[in-house]
User: Which sequence fits this backbone?
């Protein structure tokens, strides 16, 4: 983590594991006084290093445990085509992540839905119906031995 000292890096590591940790416990964990720790956290927030806090959800418990990554190639590489695709994807609740990438395709999507039939509906009725889409390659997640997304 460039531009940060060791204490700030310790704070960020601890908060990334548990964003609800109390300031008192965080200060103890990183070896600072509570007031010094709070000042550092507030400064990290002010600088935008800490962008926010969120809950880590169990998607399986919520009924959307089917996860797939999809590589999407566009038929047209224009800015207008990319913007139209991104607007359509922003409206799709199944799409949890959308990344514009380099390589042989333009986008990598993370899809979460209830099951294979619901994924097929999304694939066919939504993604496959977009005029900008030229190719779709699906990678179904069978397990996630390491997942550090918050």
Assistant:
């Amino acid at each position: 983590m460039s531009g940060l000292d060791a204490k700030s890096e310790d704070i960020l590591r601890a908060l990334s594991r548990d964003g609800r940790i109390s300031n008192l416990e965080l200060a103890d964990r990183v070896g600072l006084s509570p007031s010094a720790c709070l000042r550092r956290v507030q400064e990290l927030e002010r600088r935008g290093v800490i962008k926010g806090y969120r809950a880590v959800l169990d998607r399986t418990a919520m009924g959307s445990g089917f996860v797939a990554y999809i590589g999407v190639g566009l038929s047209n590489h224009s800015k207008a085509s990319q913007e139209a695709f991104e607007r359509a994807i922003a409206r799709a609740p199944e799409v949890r992540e959308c990344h514009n990438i380099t390589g042989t395709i333009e986008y990598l999507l993370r899809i979460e839905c209830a099951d294979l039939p619901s994924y097929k509906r999304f694939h066919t009725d939504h993604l496959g119906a977009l005029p900008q889409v030229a190719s779709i390659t699906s990678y179904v997640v069978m397990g996630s031995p390491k997942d550090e997304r918050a």
Remarks:
- The chain is about 40% helix and 20% strand.
- Strands lie at 66-74, 95-100, 107-113, 133-140.
- The longest helix spans residues 34-46.
